[in-house]
Amino acid sequence: MRLLLAAAALLALLPFGLPPYAMTLLTEALILGLFAMSLDLMVGYARLISFGHAAAYGFGAYASGNFLLHTSMPLPCAVLLAGLLGGIVAIGVGWVCTQATGISFSMLTLAYAQLLYAVAFKWTPVTGASDGLAGIPRNPGPFGVTWWSTHAGFYYLTLAFLLGAFVFCRQLVRSPFGAVLRGIRENEAKTIALGYNTRRYKIAIVAISFGVAGLAGALYAPFAGFANTELLFWLLSGQVLIMVIVGGAGTLVGPVLGAMFFLYVQQKLSSYTDSWALFFGVIFILFVLFMPEGIWGLIQSRFKQKTV
Amino acid sequence: MDFLPFLVTQCLNALSQAALLFFLGCGLTLIFGIMRIVNFAHGAFFMLGAYVGYSTVHWTGNFWTALIAAPILVGGFGAAFELGILRRLYGRDGHAFLMVTFGLTLVMGEVIRLIWGVEALQVKPPESLSDIVFILDEPFPVYRLFLAGAGIVVALVIWQFLERTRLGLLIRATSQNAEMVHALGTDVRLVRSAVFGIGCGLAGIGGVMAAPLVTASLGMAPNAVIDTFVIVIIGGMGSFLGSLIGAVLVAFVQVFGTYYFPDFALAFMYLIMVTVLVVRPGGLLGKEA
Amino acid sequence: MTGTSGFSRRALLGATLASPVVLRHALGDEPIKIGMPCALTGPGGEVGEQMRRGAEFWIKSVNAKGGLLGRPIQLYAQDTAGDPATAVRKAQDVVERDGCRLLFGMTLSSEALAVVPKLAEWNAIFISSDNGDGRLTGSSFVPNFFRANTSGPMGTRAVALYLRQANFKNFYALGMDYAWGRNSISVFKDEVKKSGKNFIADIYSPIGTQDFSTYITKIRQSGADACYLVLQGDDNNAFLAQAKQYRLGDKVQLLTEIVDLNSIHAVGEAAIGLIGSSRYTFTFPGEANAQFVAAWKKEYGNVPDVFEGEQWQACQVLQAGIEKAGSIEADKLRPALETVEIDSIKGKVTMRACDHQGVQQGFMVKVVRKEGFADPIPELIATFPADQVTPACRQMTYDS
Predict the structure, then answer these.
(1) CA-to-CA dists, residue C308 to A241, B89, C46, angstroms
(2) Is C316 contained in some domain?
(3) Which residues of A touch C177 (CB under 8 A)?
(4) Does the residue A265 lie in any domain?
């Protein structure tokens, strides 16, 4: 717990020491961290492996992109609304996908994501088709509030969303709801036998997870200033799953670290060599072989703290 | 074009496409059925087969040797990877395999780029198969007939292999009850290595066969991965017959669907996938639900 | 001009010594930094590699002659893997971390579209050498963007002008289903109608299509005598290889927007007979190109391809602009670039102020077998004057 508070404080102070390009990289890492954390809700706490999480992310990005481009909604509102919309739509998606379990569930999520990709690719008025949406502004708030338009300002906004979502998720997994999820993860049959309608819980966690992922995507659109179909592509789904696993599934904090690690290593490696993908791949393989509990798991075992 | 020649040529097109999809899907489903591994690197093995085929043709001038060399080399590499790395991960979470095969895809993609370069490479089909044949007055490439035929032959061979040979029997038994097979005295680990090798070898042969049609290029792997997954999901993970049906279904829907509704070409595969999964969550012939 | 005496002293030093080794040790010579985020792996990797090589070749030759404004040039090339998000990240890196105010690269138009809105914020100037998207000099235009290369609409226009003289009457079109494919074919459709010929239909294939048998069947059935192709990379190679297997070329003349050596090398015989617009070909006549090709061959052992030539031209444009402005500051460089006119390897290129497009000739090539070359080569068959090929300011279509 103390470790987490220290980390939060560190993150809050960083803007004072870092140059602008590092700030933008860090902001992007936090956005991806939020994205990865949302996936951890499904993967780490309910063992629902989603191969299509990019769909939620991309959806959020396109939603907030449209709000910001076509209305004068203040930025934080656009982001929240986009996340909410993502969560609501995901109820339907969750209902369909939870018809199946295990690997079939994962495949359905992949199918949904690819369908969304195919649709986005052609739906020009809303998504700009293959070009995507460009020039997404960071709309000011009421009374001309624009502190989030600067590098540092947007960073703090992202940090606020991340910490807020973290607290929310932590409360969720520690609540009775979370206990049922863990029951589903460990032994679904038994949980059903105990009288719980596990399907409803699964749909709920899918919706919440997609909503938080949508929040992350909704932050990305004004951060980068654009949203395109790459944000829905299965490659991103694979990458965010890697972030969760590398960071440590089922810990909420781990995936955030995993995202930061992933982005940092990719950035660093690719500036030194064209063959960065090679080293990247080897790093994963080594991670799996020698660090199965992930980065956070390693840190925790060092400090001998209990898991969340 | 009259309807009958059109129908016949389109069916043949679909069959040749189905053959390639089958090579990919069959290997993946075998690996999943026996080892519960989702081999993310399957597209990379497919691509490796195309490049190995290119080099073999380059050195020997003979396409047929490539057809033999590619699956052996690619399958061998697959088996070696299983032996060296995958073996340590049994008993661990399914996540582990996903990560490792994802890492392998990255590594293979980059190594292939380093060895063969970033440009697409031509793989010529053998002279005997380069011609066209007239089917009801419409020209049709002999090579595609060869593909369709090869697909049928390989499907039969694998079927017989699974049904009639001892290793085939062991494979089928292991997919149902690995512990029992182990208790009966067989080294299940060898069966697993063999299966991974065979699965990758099948992907490799698919790659060589695809190369004259699409050239050997670095884009082959990501394209192949998604196609393969779709077929196997539709047919049912772990079902050999399912992968055959899935391949044929997807190929026919793609060919005829693209002809009549070209705007939906991209969406067809996924629509079928979602429909099948909603109706039968395990796939058409799948065992899991 | 700033510090004239210091400038000429340095230039003199550079000219008399003219040795790269000495320049490297010359202290106080702040290098001119050029950032180049481009696709070196992933889709567009082939093109990105060509662009980087073109830039490196130019930098080497300029540094050997004493640099630009007496300063050596330093290239910061970064791999974007063809992903727009990575392109923005890398562009940011080279601008904010490495201090580049000049940019090349952005291989894919989607990368360019993502980066250009940020150019003003970075006070950086970007000179495109391969982005074809008409909107970059149209609706998505920003003042810090300059296009030295032939754009997509210009390529299509060259094809259309050629067809006015040719015998083909009925046209079909196949393009990749995204912005470039759709834009080019809509320009083409327009042109065909204007010339009074018959446009039968257009069809679009998803990116990553590997089996073109259905499309080939449709083209064949349509009764067209010519088909316009807007495909690139793996899709292009697959189509050409398969079209040859179906002997499509015997019945329908294949026309294309880009003819590049990589593609010809990948499909070999299947490219013979292809007629298309070429953004740059080593077979283009003239002293300037001959010298460039010879120098390139000496350095790399083979002839330069489309994007290597285009990158060289873009570098020439930048050089002319910098020399004219005497500075690399965006506010001074921009007006200088707007009026640059050079005798490029492709003929005269004039940059224009209204949309920063390089006004240049268009030409058509035909792929033929020639003695002395391992692969078939693109032979020049027609040249069209710059004012006919380049659209009006900020436009993507043509009036006549």
Answers:
(1) 39, 47, 11
(2) yes
(3) 121-122, 130
(4) no
- C81 vs A contacts (CB less than 8 Å): 270
Q: Are residues C146 and C201 in the same domain?
A: no
Query: Do C261 and C305 belong together in one domain?
Result: no
User: What local confidence, expressed as pLDDT, does residue C2 receive?
Assistant: 41
Inter-chain touch A130–C40, beta carbons under 8 Å: no
Q: What is the predicted pLDDT for the residue at B17?
A: 93
pTM score, two decimals? 0.89
Distance (Å) from the alpha carbon of B74 to chain A's nearest alpha carbon = 19
Q: Specify the pLDDT at position A306.
A: 53
Query: Which residues in chain A have Cβ-Cβ distances shorter than 8 Å to C92?
Result: 21, 24
Please judge whether B10 and C217 are an interchain contact, meaning their C-beta atoms are less than 8 angstroms apart.
Answer: yes
Residue A110 maps to a domain: yes
In this complex, the residue of B88, B98, B281 whose CB is nearest that of residue A104 is: B281
Cβ <8 Å between C93 and A134: no
Q: Is the CB of C84 less than 8 angstroms away from the CB of A24?
A: no
Let me know whether C42 and C99 are in one domain: yes
Q: Is B273 on the interface with A (CB under 8 A)?
A: yes
Same domain? For C196 and C164 the reply is: yes
- Cβ contact C217–B212 (<8 Å): no
Would residue C218 count as lying in a domain?
yes
Q: Is C110 on the interface with A (CB under 8 A)?
A: yes
> Same domain, yes or no, for C129 and C157?
no
Range of the domain at C34: 4-150+285-359
Structure confidence by residue, pLDDT tens digits, C328-346: 999 999 999 999 999 999 9
Q: Which residues of C touch B16 (CB under 8 A)?
A: 213
C270 within some domain: yes
Residue among A22, A131, A224 minimizing CB distance to C85:
A224
pLDDT at C7 over 70: no
Please check whether residues C308 and C236 belong to one and the same domain.
no
Total structural domains in chain C? Answer: 2
Dump pLDDT digits (tens) for B18-34.
999 999 999 999 998 88
Q: Give the pLDDT band of residue C10 (cuts 50, 70, 90).
A: very low
Tell me the pLDDT band of B287, cut-offs 50, 70 and 90: low
List pLDDT tens digits, range A254-274. Answer: 999 999 999 999 888 888 888
Evaluate whether residue A304 is within a structural domain: no
Say yes or no: ipTM exceeds 0.90.
Answer: yes
Nearest CA in chain C to A230: C83
Q: Do A108 and B89 touch (CB under 8 A)?
A: no
**CATH classification at residue C128:** 3.40.50.2300
Residue A108 included in any domain: yes
- State yes or no: pLDDT of C150 exceeds 70: yes
Domain hosting residue A212, numbered range: 2-233
For residue range C152-199, what is the model confidence (pLDDT) as tens digits? 889 999 999 999 888 999 999 999 988 788 888 998 999 899 889 999
How many domains does chain A fold into? Answer: 1
